[in-house]
Design goal:
- With 179 residues, this protein is α+β, with helices and mostly antiparallel strands.
- The protein has one domain.
- The chain is 44% helix and 19% strand.
- The strands form two sheets. A three-stranded antiparallel β-sheet has the order 1-4-5, with no helix packed on it. Strands 2-3 form a two-stranded antiparallel sheet.
- Strand 4 and strand 5 form a beta hairpin.
- Helix 1 crosses helix 2 and helix 2 packs across helix 4.
- The longest helix has 26 residues.
């Protein structure tokens, strides 16, 4: 049985910390505003708005950070940063991958600190949440630079051990010697 194949990109095609921060600075307030506006519509319809507003928050964040981000339209932050999100295989990521990424929002500001620490040493500039989700954030027009088998790698971080899927780069073949 052969390993599944994935793609990788040139280092400059992966988004760094600055553009990722731009995405977060745009997308978080937009999602909050959408939730607030939707809440204004729901609040007069219910006697106890606490439960429905929490459910509405989940629905808005799922629609914005999962469904819209996965679509060809992308979120406003991704459009402004000229970015898109892709799966290790090169196509659109699955819904569960993006839900896993979204769950990192629960870590709040700590998530950004972890991302800065993680991104600086990553060849593929995958944030910690991208490692978990099996995704890359790349420039909008980026094309894969190569492909390789998807393998499992063990990574230790802050005293914890994780196993992530990633694309193994096949080393360039050595040039043939001319005798």
């Amino acid at each position: 049985m052969s390993a599944a194949q994935g793609v990788y990109y040139r280092r400059q095609d992966y988004l760094g910390v600055g553009r990722r921060l731009l995405i977060d600075v745009i997308d978080f307030p937009v999602a909050v505003l959408l939730w607030y506006e939707a809440g204004l519509l729901v609040r007069p319809l219910v006697t106890d708005p606490e439960g429905p507003l929490l459910l509405l928050l989940c629905a808005v964040w799922f629609a914005y950070f999962v469904l819209l981000k996965r679509s060809r339209f992308r979120t406003l932050g991704y459009v402004a940063a000229g970015a898109r999100i892709v799966a290790l295989e090169g196509g659109r990521p699955g819904i569960m991958s993006l839900v896993a990424r979204l769950l990192f929002a629960l870590a709040g500001p700590l998530n950004f600190v972890i991302d800065i620490a993680w991104l600086t040493g990553e060849l593929d500039r995958q944030a910690f949440r991208d490692k978990f989700a099996g995704t890359y954030v790349v420039r909008r027009q980026a094309v894969p630079a190569g492909s390789g088998p998807i393998v499992r790698r063990t990574v230790m971080f802050w005293g914890m051990t994780f196993v992530f899927r990633e694309v193994a780069r096949v080393p360039d073949a050595a040039p043939a010697r001319v005798a």
